[in-house]
Structure prediction request, 768 residues.
Amino acid sequence: MAGTSPAMTKMATGFSFKILAQDGAARRGEIETPRGKIRTPAFMPVGTAATVKAMFPDQVRQAGADIILGNTYHLMLRPGAERIAALGGLHKFMGWPYPILTDSGGYQVMSLSSLRKIDEKSVTFRSHLDGAMFELSPERAIEIQNLLGADIVMQLDECIRLPAPENEVERAMRLSLRWAERSKRAFEGAAPGRALFGIVQGGTVPMLRNISARELVQMGFSGYAIGGLAVGEPQEVMLATIEETMLELPSDKPRYLMGVGEPDDILAAVERGIDMFDCVLPTRAGRHALAYTRFGKVNLKNARHADNPKPLDEESACPASRDYSRAYLHHLVKANEILGAMLLTWANIAYYQELMQDIREAIAAGRLKDFAAETRENWNREPR
Amino acid sequence: MAGTSPAMTKMATGFSFKILAQDGAARRGEIETPRGKIRTPAFMPVGTAATVKAMFPDQVRQAGADIILGNTYHLMLRPGAERIAALGGLHKFMGWPYPILTDSGGYQVMSLSSLRKIDEKSVTFRSHLDGAMFELSPERAIEIQNLLGADIVMQLDECIRLPAPENEVERAMRLSLRWAERSKRAFEGAAPGRALFGIVQGGTVPMLRNISARELVQMGFSGYAIGGLAVGEPQEVMLATIEETMLELPSDKPRYLMGVGEPDDILAAVERGIDMFDCVLPTRAGRHALAYTRFGKVNLKNARHADNPKPLDEESACPASRDYSRAYLHHLVKANEILGAMLLTWANIAYYQELMQDIREAIAAGRLKDFAAETRENWNREPR
Prediction:
């Protein structure tokens, strides 16, 4: 009976990915989820603590975001996954009815918590908020993400600090593979339409990346992420590692470069076949007086803006970039006004989404190379 | 020639006030300015530093505000009145094309700056931002407000701290009267359509209030403010002082109670014939986890909201009050998220504007007394 209802059929269609156009290694694609489509290449604004900081959900949507990212680590500490589940899930809690990807917490456990103890079973750590002890296992990371109601769920991995000795990189990579296997098993009962992504680790060692990718593909995931990059290595090392990893990833699954990045990193990674990105840069920069524009970065703290009646970009579709003078933005920043963070975050998220839309159109038109060259030239126009 | 153009005629109509309905001492009126109508009784959100804190200008408008207040003291220090004038005036600078009233700076000089020296000529003070010396005279206060482009300009007055000896209250009141005279002279060349209000002082001494009001009315202003109240005195003392002052104020000019206040203060003052209000309470409370609602104040810091799926007010027209659970607002407040301040400020400004709209309708319908009783009863419904 249930199988014949149209609603159930719709849900059952679940998660899928199709490539609509290719241009070199770059792909213009579409991910389908029960909560809506995700146009790729996609940039996911980061909604750490159940909010894309300093933005209303409808602004995030109108800026062009199809999907946002939520942080398992932050949400498990506060307000708690069980609480969010009891309140109807993360989508309802934060007023974002569209797709959400949640990370597994591995990265934040490394970067934020203290007194970590990692063993085969799990990672035990102290909350950076109140010192309370928490345990995160691959199974619990899946459970939390299912409680939150994430549309795309990430396996728990171990993210080590780089640089690190190669044997340490390999140890963490192999542990992450065993955790991938356990994550996959734990995910088996998840609601239909939800997807689990594996995470390739292996630092900047090509052979380790190859092994990690190959074994994950053998397990079979709905998508593959590249973790552990953009942690301070030069861009060329990051891009070489991406290229190496790509050799082992199937072309019919989405590829997600975690935590990246600057607009130029995104463009370069798209040129190498990446489909998904997330990064705190546009939101964090927006709270620190830095605007991303078509013509490069603008530091609104700089006194040279104090009398400038021009907006950030008079041709932008985003009111924050188009309708407020640099003089006003400078004033808000100097006066430490919340509206400064609101306007600059909005402008940055809108710019990132505009960039992704332009990238998607360039791929579809087979002119990504020209687009990339023009775009990089434009980024140098704004005075430093 | 110029006088015959319709645009000029429109400008020339300038500032006017008409009373549309009366209910006891309360008045439902309308102020006309070249930048638009102000429905009275009116509440003016405070836009201290050229921003109603944590709100976009279009939210302030959509919440129902016809006019906002700007602070001469803050704007003269940063970014500077001459700079704002060169950028096209305060309306353009902050993206608010509707009426703006600016205060004269007198109150903030008293409450924020250090090393004040007041003499007949002016007040000299150190900026609370960087210690720079500034001088503010009645003439300079008018000049600054004209540079900002304010639609309603306030005379400079001396605001003393209460309690104070009666002879000190009288001295400051008489100085404020002489400054009113000078303000009026300085305002003579102002652009057509702009209005100057005098400010009644005299502490809580009925006779001093009477003298102050009577002498201001003799000079003749477009409107009359009551300053120096809501500085810690009991509500009944404030209301008695208002009643006393009202005896001397003409009924055909708007009456503005400065810096007031709690919703109940506003309601009580409207019942005594006040037409205009401003206060930082709804915006400041919004940044400190406190929501004003039809059913009273809600402290979102309180742990009892942590699991509450209900919004602040499911029947509110404001999305911030209607569409987000108390659990979510509590979480945002606990996590110190900017969105918490954004949503609660929005909810509070919307509630204040809804209250003013309801007050206006009640006066028009001749049922203010019943409305006030019902409203006060409702304010006690929210658990403390």
